[in-house]
C-alpha cells in the first residue's frame, strides 16, 4: 500500500512539474517570439493577434472534442462585453510589447493589480485592508521609475501600455463576475470568447493594416516567417491552457510565486536578447515593483488562509 501511494504521489508531482515547465517555457517564449516577429520581421500586430485567437479557438475545439471540458450553451450578448475587452487587452498589450522594451512592457503589466483594486473599490464597492493598499505604492513607484528612465522611452508606447493595463484590469474583473453569474469555468468562457473576438478583429484589420501585398498578413512572407507565426499561435494557446491547468492543480502560493519567477526571467531575457539598456534607476524601479508585488501576494494569501481557518472553526 505504501509503495502504491508513493507511486501515485510521484506521478502527481511529475505531472505538476511538467505542467509548470510547460507554462514557464510557453509564457517566456510568447513574449520573445512576438517581440522578434514585430522587430525583426515587421509582422502586423493585429493580424498576429487574430492568428492567436483563431489557434486558441481551434485548440479549445479539439479539447472539447476529446472530452477535456463540456461546452455550456451561452447567448452571444452575455459574452459580447467580455469578447470586446478580451480583444482590446490582447491588442493593446501586444502594441505595448511592439512599442516598448521588454522590461517596460513587463513592468507595465504589474500595474494591473493596483488598477483592479481601484475598479473593484469604485465600481463594486469592495473594501481592501490598509496594508494591501500600501503595497500598491511601491508597485506604482517602481513602474514609474522604470518607464521614466527607460532610454527607449516612447510616449505612444506608454499610451498603449496604459490602455493595455486598463482593459486587462476590466477584463479580469468581468471574467470573475461572469464566471460566477453564468456558472461556467474559464475554458467554457474562452470557448465562446475566442471566435467572437476573432470575428471582431477580422472586420477591423483592413482599416488599420494591409491585408495583401508587402507587410500584409497574406503578403509574400517566407516559409520560416509563416512557421514562426503559427508557432506563436500554438504557444499562445499553450499559455492559456497551462495557466488554467496550474490554477486547478496547485495552491495559490505555488502559482503566485511561479509568476514572480517568470517576471524576473522575462526582464533578464529582454536585456540579453534585445540588448535593452538598463540604468541604475531602472534597476531600482524593477526592485521596488518586485518587492511591492511580493508584499501584496503575501498579504493576500495570508488573508485567504485567515478566511479558510474561520470557515473551519465555524460550528
UniProtKB/TrEMBL annotation:
Top-rank taxon, per record: Eukaryota
Annotated ranges, domain Sugar phosphate transporter: 25-296
Keywords: Membrane, Transmembrane, Transmembrane helix
InterPro entries the record matches: Sugar_P_trans_dom (IPR004853), TPT_transporter (IPR050186)
GO cellular component: membrane
Transmembrane regions listed in the UniProt entry: 16-38, 50-70, 79-97, 103-123, 155-177, 189-208, 220-247
Subcellular location per the Swiss-Prot or TrEMBL entry: Membrane
Membrane topology summary: Multi-pass membrane protein
Primary location group: membrane
Name used for this protein in its record: Solute carrier family 35 member E3
Organism: Apteryx owenii
Amino acid at each position: 500500500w505504501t509503495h502504491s501511494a508513493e507511486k501515485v504521489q510521484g506521478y502527481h508531482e511529475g505531472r505538476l512539474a511538467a505542467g509548470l515547465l510547460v507554462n514557464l517555457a510557453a509564457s517566456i517564449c510568447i513574449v520573445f517570439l512576438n517581440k522578434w516577429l514585430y522587430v525583426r520581421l515587421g509582422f502586423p500586430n493585429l493580424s498576429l493577434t487574430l492568428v492567436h485567437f483563431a489557434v486558441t479557438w481551434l485548440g479549445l475545439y479539439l479539447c472539447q472534442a476529446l472530452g477535456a471540458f463540456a461546452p455550456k450553451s451561452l447567448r452571444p450578448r452575455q459574452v459580447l462585453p467580455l469578447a470586446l475587452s478580451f480583444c482590446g487587452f490582447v491588442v493593446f498589450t501586444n502594441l505595448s510589447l511592439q512599442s516598448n522594451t521588454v522590461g517596460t512592457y513587463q513592468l507595465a503589466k504589474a500595474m494591473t493589480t493596483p488598477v483592479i483594486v481601484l475598479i473593484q473599490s469604485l465600481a463594486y464597492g469592495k473594501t481592501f485592508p490598509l496594508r494591501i493598499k500600501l503595497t500598491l505604492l511601491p508597485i506604482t513607484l517602481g513602474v514609474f521609475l522604470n518607464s521614466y528612465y527607460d532610454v527607449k522611452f516612447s510616449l505612444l508606447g506608454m499610451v498603449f501600455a496604459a490602455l493595455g493595463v486598463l482593459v486587462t484590469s476590466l477584463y479580469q474583473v468581468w471574467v470573475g463576475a461572469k464566471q460566477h453569474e453564468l456558472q461556467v469555468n474559464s475554458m467554457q468562457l474562452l470557448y465562446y470568447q475566442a471566435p467572437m473576438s476573432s470575428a471582431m478583429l477580422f472586420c477591423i484589420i483592413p482599416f488599420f493594416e494591409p491585408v495583401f501585398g508587402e507587410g500584409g498578413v497574406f503578403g509574400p512572407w517566407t516559409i520560416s516567417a509563416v512557421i514562426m507565426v503559427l508557432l506563436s499561435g500554438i504557444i499562445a494557446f499553450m499559455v492559456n491552457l497551462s495557466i488554467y491547468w496550474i490554477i486547478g492543480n496547485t495552491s495559490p502560493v505555488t502559482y503566485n510565486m511561479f509568476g514572480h519567477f517568470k517576471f524576473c526571467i522575462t526582464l533578464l531575457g529582454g536585456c540579453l536578447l534585445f540588448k535593452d539598456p538598463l540604468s541604475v534607476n531602472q534597476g531600482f524601479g524593477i526592485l521596488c515593483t518586485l518587492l511591492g508585488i511580493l508584499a501584496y501576494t503575501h498579504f493576500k494569501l495570508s488573508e485567504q488562509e485567515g478566511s479558510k481557518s474561520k470557515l473551519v472553526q465555524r460550528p
